[in-house]
Design a protein that fits this description.
- There is one protein chain.
- The chain is mostly beta strands and about 400 residues long.
- The protein has 2 domains: about 120 residues, Lipocalin (Beta Barrel), CATH 2.40.128; about 280 residues, Glycosyl hydrolase domain, family 43 (Tachylectin-2, Chain A), CATH 2.115.10.20.
- The protein contains 2 helices and 30 strands.
- It has an 8-stranded antiparallel beta barrel with strand order 1-2-3-4-5-6-7-8. Strands 9-30-29-28 form a 4-stranded antiparallel sheet. Strands 10-11-12-13 form a 4-stranded antiparallel sheet, with no helix packed on it.
- Strand 16 and strand 17 form a beta hairpin.
Length: about 400
């Protein structure tokens, strides 16, 4: 009997419970690669797609389709891939197999061992979380017209059912109602010339203070350093503070900021863009997201510690953060995902690995590739702002320079 048979038969036998999508990471010719596996039911039968490209979303990809599958009944599946699109078991026997892969599934993780001609490789990854549910969205141009030439949104915070947005190309703070009513928007202009380099905004609700962070500013005798603007509730500038970050080698600066009040003290969580706070390929070594913690003193903010994000926030970069009632949300621009975790009430440590969610997609292509800032609206909803997409992401024009409200799905 031929060991390959229809994936539909596997499912009938109730031994194949892996429907969903997966992300796997490995190297090909010393270049980091991202592989995504999509397993889903269609009216015609079960379809498995394997999309591979450089390890960042928006890169050029190659898609293969499963023609045959074999389940050993012990959490391991072998699949033959071809270039033709179709359902498992229905493709012609004369199709040329271009890649053979073996998958081992265990506790949400997956390992792929593949063979393609004389080449072999191994990739490891995890089952993706469900997609966020879009509730509403609007472009900044529809809300504010041509007040700004560009709306390169980078940070957002919620205060009294209004969201305040900063852009890294402007010193203007945009004010928008949470329901995105275009008849109730306003703006506040801060003193400054040229691009602001603003990357995040947060609020100390007890003190009535906004904090806006610049990613990195030239500082005499030192490396570029993040700088904090302290504003009162009328957006007048009260003070500016340097945020001393100790980075190993060339580092990425502040990409997001959140205020936390605990045990009578005020803290700022500063999210770094790259893994381990680094640039280039080193910054894409996933599973090493970092938050630097600063405590407010009488005159400044003093670095007091570091929080490592759990490996489940397995992202290529980190672009926005918010904290509410010990619940932390972090988003990634390059990975087009959102992660939620819970801090322990007595320490700045996470209770567990948390959960990751995907931004909505068209098949294997993300519709939201440039998400830059995030804030909680309530326990199940977030507001996210998007930047201006550039090549190779400029095809996602409907997500450019916009504000979006998403709901977290419940259950699995």
């Amino acid at each position: 009997m031929n060991r390959f048979f229809s994936l539909g038969l596997i499912l009938v036998a109730a031994t194949f419970a892996q429907e969903g999508s997966y992300r796997l990471f490995g190297d090909v010719d010393k270049k980091p690669m991202l592989t995504r596996i999509f397993i889903r039911s269609t009216p015609q039968g079960w379809r498995v797609e394997r999309t591979t490209g450089r390890d960042h979303e928006g890169a050029k990809t190659t898609t293969l389709f499963a023609a045959r599958a074999d389940d050993d009944g012990d959490g391991q599946i072998e699949i033959d891939y071809v270039r033709a699109s179709g359902v498992v078991g229905a493709l012609g026997a004369d199709e040329d197999v271009v890649l053979h892969a073996t998958y081992t599934f265990e506790d949400g993780s997956v390992t792929e061992t593949w063979e393609q001609g004389d080449e072999t490789g191994v990739a490891k990854g995890y089952r993706e979380g469900p997609a966020l549910i879009l509730e509403r969205e609007s472009t900044f141009a529809d809300l504010f017209g041509d007040e700004l030439k560009r709306y390169e949104a980078s940070g957002v915070v919620l205060v009294d059912q209004r969201v305040f947005v900063v852009c890294d190309n402007s010193h203007t703070i945009l004010s928008i109602p949470a329901d995105l009513d275009p008849d109730d928007v306003s703006s506040h202009e801060l003193k400054g010339k040229g691009s602001s380099d603003f990357e995040g905004i947060t609020v100390d609700r007890r003190r009535g203070r906004f904090y806006v962070v610049q990613e990195g500013v030239k500082r005499k005798g030192k490396q570029d350093t993040p700088r904090l603007w302290e504003l009162d509730d009328d957006f007048d500038i009260d003070d500016k503070h340097w945020l001393d970050l100790e980075l190993d080698g060339v580092g990425k600066g502040a990409e997001g900021i959140a205020h936390v009040h605990r045990d009578g003290e005020d803290y700022l969580f500063v999210l770094l863009e790259g893994n381990s706070g680094r640039d280039n390929d080193a910054g894409r070594e996933r599973g090493k997201g970092r938050i630097e913690v600063f405590r407010r003193t009488k005159k400044s903010f003093k670095p007091v510690g570091r929080i490592d994000l759990p490996e489940r926030a397995f992202f290529a970069d980190y672009s926005g953060i918010d904290v509410r009632d010990n619940r932390v949300v972090v988003i990634s621009q390059a990975s087009a995902q959102l992660w939620v975790g819970m801090l322990r009430p007595d320490t700045f440590e996470f209770e567990d690995e948390g959960r990751a969610f995907r931004f909505p997609e068209d098949g294997s292509t993300t519709r939201y590739p440039v998400m830059e800032g995030v804030a909680w609206l309530d326990a199940q909803r977030v507001v996210v702002v998007s930047d201006r997409p550039t090549a190779p992401l400029d095809a996602a024009r409907h997500a450019r320079e916009s504000i979006h409200v998403f709901r977290l799905p419940t259950g699995d």
